[in-house]
Structures are given as C-alpha cells and as structure tokens.
Amino acid sequence: MNFSDLGLSAEVLRAVEDAGYKQPTPIQEQAIPVVLMGRDVLGCAQTGTGKTASFTLPMIDILASGRARARMPRTLVLEPTRELAAQVAEAFDVYGKHHKLTQALLVGGVSIGDQERKLDRGVDVLIATPGRMIDLFERGKILLSDVKILVIDEADRMLDMGFIPDIERIVGLLPRIRQTLFFSATMPPEIRRLADAFLMNPREITVAPPASPAATVQQNIVVVQPDQKRDVLRRLIQSENVKNALIFCNRKRDVDILNRSLKRHGLDVAALHGDMPQPKRTETLERFRNNEIRLLVCSDVAARGLDIESMSHVFNFDVPIHAEDYVHRIGRTGRAGREGRAFTLAAPEDGKFVQAIEQLIGKPIPPYAVPNVATAALTYEEGEGRGGGRGRGGRGRGRGRGGKPPSHAQPHAQPTHHKPAEHKPEHKERHAPRPAAAPPPRFAPVTMGPAQAAKPAAHHADEGGDDNRRVVGFGDDLPAFLARRGSRG
Ligand code: AMP
To answer: Which of 10, 9, 56, 14 is nearest to 31 (CA)?
Structure first.
C-alpha cells in the first residue's frame, strides 16, 4: 500500500515525500483512514512503529478546515514526557509544513508566559504534558470546550508515572462529543479500563513492536568488577568507532559522576537526566542532536522514544533492572535499518538481570573480551546483588531457563575470580524494583513497559521523564535520620 491510498491530502503527501517515507508502516496503514473518517482509535503500538505520523498526518488534514479561537485549542495531544511532547510538536512542524497550522507546546520547566501568549492567539494543536496542562487550566488560561480531537499517547507510561488521575481530570473537561485516539505499548487491565471509559466504539489496531530489539543492533556484554567499569568504558569508546553514543546509568547520581569522570579524561561529553532544569535538558539534547556533543551520559529519560538519527553506539554502564528498559535503551541505535552497536557493562552480581533481558529478547547477549581486561563471570544466586533480585524482570522471566545460567556465564576471555559478594549491593536504587507483573498484556507479544495494577504514588513528579516511576521504599530519598548510623545511641 502507498501513502496515496490512505485518503491524505496532496499537501500532506508532499510533506511525507519530503520526509523520505516510501511506504506507510502497518500502524499508519490501518489508523490513518480510520482517523480521517472521524472514528476513535485504540492503538496498541510502541515508539518506533511510526505511530506519531499515524495520528499527526490525518489530524493535519482534519485541521486544515476551520480556525482556532483564542485560548480554545482545537485538538489536544497528551504526552508523558517533555521530550516526547517536543518530538510530537516537531512531527506537526515537519508533516504540516505545507499547511498554516498553529501549535503550542505546554510542558513543565519552560517559561509559562510564552506558552500563555501563544494560547491567547489561538492554537490548532496543543501538545502538553499533564501537569502543565492542569496548571494552565487552573489559572484560567485555557478553555477546553472546543477540543475536537484528543490524543492520549503512551498511556501505559502515563500510568507508570502517576498521571492517570490528571488524565481523567483533563478528559472530564473536554466535550463529550469528540474524537479520541488512544495509544499504548501494552494493554494492562487498568489501561483497558481507561480506554473503555474514554473511547466510543473505537477501531482497535495492534501492531507488532518494531523488530525488537532492532535486528540491526549488534549487542555485546562485558562482565567486569564494578570498579573496572569506567576504565572498560573508556577503552571501548577508544577502540570502537564511536560517532555518537548514549551511555545509560540506572541512577541520576551516577549520571553526574560518570559525566564528570569522562570529562576529566578529556572526552566530549554531557549529562541528561530528569532532575536537570528543562531548558538545560532541551539545550543539551539539541547540542547532542547537532553533533556538538559526542557522548551523552543519561538516565532512562533518554531511553524512550528519543529519535536521534544515526546514533552509532549505546552503552549500558549499568544493566537495567527492568528488562524492557534494555530494549528501549538499545533501540536508540540501529534505527531506520542502520547499523548500531550496543555494549552492556555488567557486574558479576547482575546475573539475574541479564538473564531476564535475555529471556525477553529471546537470545543470549554475546560476551565481549576487551583486550587486557580480565573479565568476570556472572552469578545468579537469589537474594544477592542489587535490591535482592526482586526486580520485576529479575524474577519469573529467568525461570524459562530452568535456572541455568546462559552461555556467557563463563566468558571466553580470561575468566577470572568469582567473588560475587565482594561488591556492595546498590541498595538505594532510584528505579526500585517494580511490583510483580500483572497478567500479560492482551495484545503485545513482548511485555514492554509496566503493567502494574497498583495505584501509582508518584503524582506530579512533573514529567521528569525517567525517575518518576513509583519508588518502592525510599529510593534515593532516604531520610537523613535513617541514614545516620547508630543514631539511636
Ligand atoms: P515513531 O514510532 O512515531 O516514534 O516513529 C519512529 C521513526 O520512524 C521516526 O523517526 C519517524 O520519522 C520514522 N517514520 C515514521 N513513519 C515512517 C515511514 N512510513 N517510513 C519510514 N520512516 C518512518
């Protein structure tokens, strides 16, 4: 099928051609005609499937007739993070370049004055994160009574970040007669319930995740003692032909530490995580996109949906605790059929987490020997390592192997000592293990993203992006009185 078969206008088709797209992706093929018909859509699709264009392209055509009135946006797109919201805004710019549509991006952390001025002039498309949207509504700066199309994107991520009450509130402010397009990577029962409440007779469209993880990403794992990781990382950066790379750490604090360390070694590097002020985040990302920075040390804020062209490498400085984060992280490279490289640096006690990842991706990650570095072996003991192995991915998924360690338990390079308990477990994981997984999603063949049934606690962590997931226990926020040892005398 061609784009021209979908009912889009000549102007939108021209923009699609300019973007270099030859054929619609499955979600575009199925969703675009339905959206143009004015029907609701329940799309089970994740980033990388082309879902953004599946709603932006027909919306542009629908919006081509009619005009926006002051403070009364005609359409509303809700996104869980600022980065994703910015990406959708960019998509409207790119695909709407032959139209005269106005849009406003309402995200936390940027000057509210500019956003208000735009709204005052009237916007066709309002792209917002839930927290800022509610703020503006409460200040009386926005009227939602003219919204004809509502898009809720990445609904499972919204659930994960505690935004569902906000979403319910926002939807309650919209006209009942409207078109709703609802996208989620997974369909746990809570998301299904929301979809039932928000949508009217929707067309359900489910597409497979993009060849996950991208077949074009060559993956390797290096198992070393934690105190060797920085050295190994630098060696890899040196020996590999790294054009640009994301380097993922599990904790924000470690992002800063690693960033400083790499800087000290003269590398061209910056940091990105959810605690940074939004202007700084935007600026850093922009510089990285423009190849002004070669390496970006980041938390999972950068893992989802970030679309940076031809990223040559992804390094996992830490093994992600949630197996699905691995897929999101390495999916930042090897995009659009390009070759990509992903290296994961694992400590011996990461065995369970590695096992869970391999279970998810359905194959072992081949070990990699860094010249002159003694590699270690993974250990798999229950109750050891980070957080006691109670991570969602760390439990259950490994069972399929009958408890047997995967092929690289004995790496081919100089297997060394095997001292699993020597390195202190990292107790204060910000990304605390999630609760046990809910029943498998109805549609998605791979359980991407959370499927918890519990009510999220992290309300209004305001779109920090990464570390806003519920924290079990205290996470990094350990009260000082608990941290003081022997304080009871
Ligand atoms: P998304 O799933 O919306 O995040 O899109 C993932 C990537 O696919 C983006 O870089 C889009 O520019 C790209 N893309 C979207 N539709 C197509 C298409 N029909 N052909 C090729 N690339 C596309």
So the answer is: 56
Q: How far apart are CA 8 and CA 99, in angstroms?
A: 13
Q: For ligand 1, say whether the CB of 305 is within 6 Å of any of its atoms.
A: yes
Residue of 25, 57, 127 to test ligand 1 pocket, by largest number of atoms within 8 Å of CB: 25
In this predicted structure, what is the pLDDT of residue 350?
Answer: 96
Q: What distance in Å separates the CA atoms of residue 259 and residue 249, rounded to the nearest whole number?
A: 10
Q: Is the CB of 52 under 6 A from ligand 1?
A: yes
Q: What is the mean pLDDT of the chain?
A: 78
CB of residue 56 inside a 6 A radius of ligand 1: no
319 CB burial (10 A radius; 0-12, 13-18, 19+)? buried
Task: Encode pLDDT of 276-317 as tens digits.
Answer: 887 888 889 889 988 999 999 999 877 665 677 778 999 999
Q: Ligand 1 centre and the CA of 91: distance in Å?
A: 10
Q: Is there an atom of ligand 1 within 6 Å of 50 CB?
A: yes
In this prediction, residue 458 has a pLDDT band, given cuts at 50, 70 and 90, of: very low
pTM above 0.85, yes or no: no
Phi, psi of 353 (to 5 degrees): -70, -40
Cα 149 to ligand 1 centroid, rounded to whole Å: 22
* Helix intervals (H) in 37-143: 51-63, 82-95, 112-121, 130-138
